[in-house]
Amino acid sequence: MTPLLFSTFEVTNQAFYRASLSFAIVNLKPIVPGHVLVLPSRVVPRLADLDDNELFCLMRSIKRVGGVIQKAYGGDGLTVACQDGKAAGQTVPHVHFHLIPRKFQGDPFAEKNDEIYPAIEKNEASLPNQQQMSPLKVDADEDRVARSVQEMEKEAAWLEAFFSEKAERKAI
User: Fold this and answer.
1) What angle do CA 85, 87, 88 make, to 5 degrees?
2) Under 8 Å CB-to-CB from 20, ≥6 apart: which residues?
3) 137 falls in which pLDDT band (50, 70, 90)?
4) CA-based nearest residue to 25, from 143, 127, 167, 118
5) Residues designated as active site
6) Average pLDDT over residues 32-54
7) Strands 36-40 and 22-26: what pairing?
8) How buried is residue 105: exposed, middle or buried, by Cβ count under 10 Å (0-12/13-18/19+)?
9) How far apart, in whole angstroms, are the C-alpha atoms of residue 117 and residue 82?
10) What 3-state DSSP class applies to 111?
11) 146 partner at 20 to 30 Å CA-CA among 26, 32, 65, 138?
């Protein structure tokens, strides 16, 4: 199997969903439980760099993964966000979408929905430094501790089961 990359970082063991031209991974430092990333298989920095087939596959994956994430984590909605380019806050030069399950009750951003965007930006900015130093070392954001590789692999295996043929038929 070809290794999956998030820019230059190998994330094969974090992957829980694969399509022909895209995949989804669990997040090293999720903002809320269920915060995952969906990205194209080809490493490109901007949405405009994707061809139509890649973009279609990516959007279909976002829809499919989003439905599963919302159900698996008991969400009432979903925040879908993409920082397209450095000026938009993108720090990892690989197109990716954040999928974040949201709830009416118990959501840390429920009364302040727009505050999720600075949280995404802060989360995004910390990733390259963490990865280069150590996957377990975190920056100044002490509230969201980076997870171990084992924790991420366990969540990825749990989520992958939602995409099995049997689970797919049950959902229909």
Assistant:
1) 65
2) 57
3) very low
4) 127
5) 96
6) 97
7) antiparallel
8) exposed
9) 10
10) coil
11) 65
